[in-house]
Every structure is written in C-alpha cells, then in structure tokens.
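Long-time lurker. I teach an intro course on protein structure, and each term I like to show students one example going from raw sequence to a predicted 3D structure in token notation. This year I'd like something fresh instead of my usual example. Would anyone be willing to generate the tokens for the chain below so I can use it in lecture? Attribution to the forum is fine with me.
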Amino acid sequence: MAASAIGNKRRLALVTGGAGFIGSHLTDALIAQGLRVRVLDNFVAGPRDNVNPAAETVIGDVRVLESIRPAFDGVDSVFHMAALPRVMLSIEHPVETHLVNVVGTLNALIAARDAGVRRFIYSGSSSVYGDQPLLPLRESMTPNPLNPYALQKLAGEQYTRMFHRLFAMNTLTLRYFNVYGPRMATEGAYVTVVGVFIREKIAGRPLIIHGDGTQRRDFTHVRDAVRANLAAMDAAVGDGRALNVGRGENLSVNEIADLIGGPVVHVERRPGDARDTLADLSETRAALHWEPEVATPDGVRELMRLSGCP
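-- Reply from a regular --
Happy to contribute to a lecture. Here you go:
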C-alpha cells in the first residue's frame, strides 16, 4: 500500500473537494499515514470545519483552470473528489453540475498533467451503470446512465482513461456505491436515503420511502471507500481503468428503514434512479488487494449512535 511513514512525509497528496464528506475522511487518513496533504476546495459544499488542521488549504474553483493550477505544484498523487453530487440536483441544474463534474474534472486532469503528478485517482460513481439486465454490476458492462449526474460522472471517468492513453498519465477511477457514514449530509434537498432517514428519525417524523421500498442498494461505508483510495494510490495498475468500490451485498430501502426504525411514508418513486445496485468486486480485489470491512447493519447503527438518533 503506502510507503513508510518517513517516505510518506516527503510525499504531497492533493485532495480536491477535501472539505466534503469522503474527501475530509480521506484527508484524515492520509495525514495519519504520514503524508503531507493539501486540500483544494471552495467550501460551497463542504464546511471548513471538516478539514484536518494539519492539512494545507488552497481555495480554488475547479471550473476555472487557472485558479487551481497552483494547488498541483509539487504533488505526488491527486484524489479528485470535487463534485456536485446527487441525481435530483443534476436533473434540476444540469448546466451547473456539468461545469463542476465534467469541466472541473477535465481542468484537474490538465493541471495534474502539466504539473507532472505521478498518479490521478478519480472519484467515480456506480450511477454510470443505470439499469442493467443482470446483477452484480461488472466494470465490463456497457454504461447506461439514466440522469445527468450519471452521464457527467461517466464523462469524467472517460476523460481520466483518455489522459492515460494520450499522455501516459497514471490514472484510475473508483466507482463508489452509495457511500454513507459520519459527516454525510443530512440536511438539504439532495441528501441520500440514509441521510434522509437519519434526519427524519432525529426530527421524530416518518421515514420517507420513494416507491415501494423494495429497490435494493449496495451501501458502502466511508471507511471502506477511504481504504480503497489508499490502496489505489500505490497500486500496481494505473491504466485508467474503472474499479467498483462497494460492499458486494445489497439491502432494500425497506430493510434500511427497519434498521433505523419508526413509521414510514411511501411517496412516488423519483425519476432517474436505477432499480437495484450490487457491486462485483472481483476486479477491485485483484487490482487493489482490498476488501470491504464494514457490514451495512453495523455501519448504519454506528451512524445512528454518532448522530444522536433516539
């Protein structure tokens, strides 16, 4: 995985979107391993309080190439996590999300290439699969994005692969499956299902389920997502490929609601969502020597305790 702590201290990692949910956890883990870490963020989606005080902070906007170039100077590895996530946000604001998720990724790749960065790891999304005729979802399947966010994340990973092919850059994409855990958003209109349930539980309101709740999701704890990034930093492969990062098991939305407990209310299913997700992890295991560790029921119960759920 990573080099020795002494060697790590001479290495500088850049986390774009490092004030965000996954990015802030990754920043903590990189610092714990002895690396120097630089966070690039505009603090629109993530608060400054999320950033480890041991990290260097650079304010910049990935939509503007010249504003982010200085953040890439002297960097060994880039973890590109800056994004505007959520399906409904992309449906309602396709241009704004495109500029961050596609143009921002292209700008980060250009800045990394020009700075001579050793490795570029792109935070992709399992949403690129859309609905597929078979489960589990394998990286060899033809993508079928069902919404602007999924299409934008697919464009980002194709740019990431293309930069390897055109410029011999060392790149990888990690396709996350429904990441949850401490610091995930629980407020606002665009939170994920676990975040929504936690919010409603704390407020004493019924849990809102879109559709009949039998749709199944592969939920990934943020600690497992972070461990996949650490493994990807020094993995033997760097040929632009995409690798699934999930639990390799799925639960229905109804089962998640049962874990959290309380009354439920069913509303109309939202457009643009895949019916079911389930990650095939065989390629990731072979390439990264990584295994998910946090069982979903355990992770959800831990999150409930940390969130102060009744």
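Some talking points for your students: The mean pLDDT is 93. Residues 88 and 190 are 7 Å apart (CA to CA).
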